[in-house]
Amino acid sequence: MSGLSILNVDAVRAAPVSRDPYTYFLGNGVFNEEAIAEIRQDFPAIAKPGYLTVDEVALKGRFKALIDELESDAFSRILGEKFGIDLVSCPRLTTIMKKSQPKYGSIHTDGPSKVMTLLVYMNDAWDAPAAGRLRVLYDGKNYEPFAVEVPPTMGTMFAFLRADNSWHGHEPFEGERRVVQVAWVKDAAELERKKKRNRTAQFLKGIFGR
After folding, report:
1. Which InterPro entries does the UniProt entry name for this protein (predicted)?
2. pLDDT, tens digit, 9 for 90 and up, residues 61-71
3. Domain range holding 50?
4. Contact 77, 13 (CB under 8 A)
5. Is 185 exposed, middle or buried (0-12, 13-18, 19+ CB in 10 A)?
């Protein structure tokens, strides 16, 4: 038994792994239905735009329980089995975003200190035709063509192994875009460095408003 009660382990395991243009999976319905209302209710009241680490956010209720499950060794073991790698030994950095700005979403691969990145979306609906929808891309310049487009709706999960060609991004969007990101990194020093960098970025946003 995994001991996971909020995450729908069967849905995560059933999501097919794709290898083109890099290794990723896209799953949906990854929350157990009875938990969704409370996850929605307990989502943090974040006023700042961008990603905040879990240390910077007041977590409560079922949302806090969800974060605990996402960061657990049990869940890392399930994902590691999907991708055929050891994730349990990797430190994890979890960040949360509620508000997006137009400057977010530029095409990138993630830095080499990351082993895998996972995104879990929690928006009830998404009416924007393209804006804010993450895309798996073939190069670092173009949003089209794309291999897959990720709807940022409640219970959608996207995860990928970091590679030199793991290009992804989304067209600019401004507004509420609820998402939790978990990054498995190579060592604890990298984890602390990323936390410090994120805190500095948020501090500067507080001063300069951007």
Report:
1. Pro_4_hyd_alph_FE2OG_OXY (IPR044862)
2. 999 999 999 99
3. 28-205
4. no
5. buried
CATH code for the domain in which residue 151 is found: 2.60.120.620
Give the tens place of pLDDT for each residue, 104-130.
999 999 999 999 999 999 999 999 889
The residue type of 116 is: M
- The whole-model pTM stands at 0.90
Annotate the chain with three-state secondary structure: CCCCCCECHHHHHHCCEECCCCCEEEECCCECHHHHHHHHHHCCCCCCECEEEHHHCCCCHHHHHHHHHHCCHHHHHHHHHHHCCCCCCCCEEEEEEEEECCCCCCCECCCCCEEEEEEEECECCCCCCCCCCEEEECCCCCCCCEEEEECCECCEEEEEECCCCCCEECCCCCEEEEEEEEEEECCHHHHHHHHHHHHHHHHHHHHHCC
